[in-house]
């Protein structure tokens, strides 16, 4: 997505097969993307910072200590002025979805109640191949400004409407519902 907007992009996943699929897709689209096999709960160990982090379908996998570790990793990897966008399963979605934790607005706010700002939590959908209604989701925007907005450093701006349009596209069609969680 970010590469499609002309930005330097890094894709992180723990599963080699997920990275292969993403790599094939980037190649087919002629996008230059760096892919890393890495645990998102340990993003800080990369020793890098990211102006924008896009999370489609990861946050809702974690709860308890894993969620806290992921949020701490985001805090380390997204500097003041950076942004975090998350698209995750909502508690509005009916039925069971394996390892996914359906998120309430309250628990999203609680997870990020660390002095950093949650700018918006909006009802949204994740498109999937097996159901034209898609999955009921939350689209969350978090701004890592710790002081006044947009002062600390020149983060590469991502045009918000374009980003939202890309997020709404959801994952590419896959044969089995809802996803394969890979070989990790
Ligand atoms: C629901 S899929 C979403 C994949 C992709 N973002 C998409 O929208 O198609 C969740 C992905 O999170 C990856 N994952 C799970 N735990 C992870 C972790 N600790 N660190 C990095 N990736 C992880 C899984 O391997 C899987 O590819």
TrEMBL record:
InterPro entries: Methyltransf_25, SAM-dependent_MTases_sf
Signal peptide, first to last residue: none
SUPFAM superfamilies (UniProt xref): S-adenosyl-L-methionine-dependent methyltransferases (SSF53335)
Domain of life: Bacteria
UniProt xrefs under Gene3D superfamilies: Vaccinia Virus protein VP39 (3.40.50.150)
Region listing for Disordered, in residue ranges: 149-184
GO MF term list: methyltransferase activity
Residues annotated as domain Methyltransferase: 6-82
Alphabetical list of Pfam families matching this protein: Methyltransf_25
Biased composition (Low complexity): 155-169
Annotated protein name in UniProt: Methyltransferase domain-containing protein
């Amino acid at each position: 997505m970010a590469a499609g907007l002309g930005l330097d992009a890094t894709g992180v996943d723990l599963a080699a097969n997920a990275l292969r699929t993403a790599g094939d897709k980037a190649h087919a689209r002629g996008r230059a993307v760096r892919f890393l096999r890495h645990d998102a709960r340990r993003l800080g160990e990369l020793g890098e910072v990211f102006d924008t982090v896009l999370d489609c379908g990861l946050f809702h996998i974690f709860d308890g200590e894993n969620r806290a570790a992921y949020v701490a990793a985001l805090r380390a990897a997204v500097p003041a002025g950076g942004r975090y966008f998350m698209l995750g399963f909502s508690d509005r979605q009916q039925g069971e979805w394996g390892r996914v934790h359906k998120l309430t607005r309250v628990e999203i706010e609680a997870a990020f109640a660390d002095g950093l700002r949650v700018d918006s939590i909006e009802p949204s959908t994740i498109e999937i191949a097996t159901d034209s209604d898609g999955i009921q989701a939350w689209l969350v925007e978090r701004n890592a400004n710790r002081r006044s907005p947009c002062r600390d450093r020149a983060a590469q701006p991502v045009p918000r409407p374009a980003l939202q349009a890309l997020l709404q596209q959801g994952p590419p069609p896959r044969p089995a519902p809802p996803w394969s969680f890979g070989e990790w």
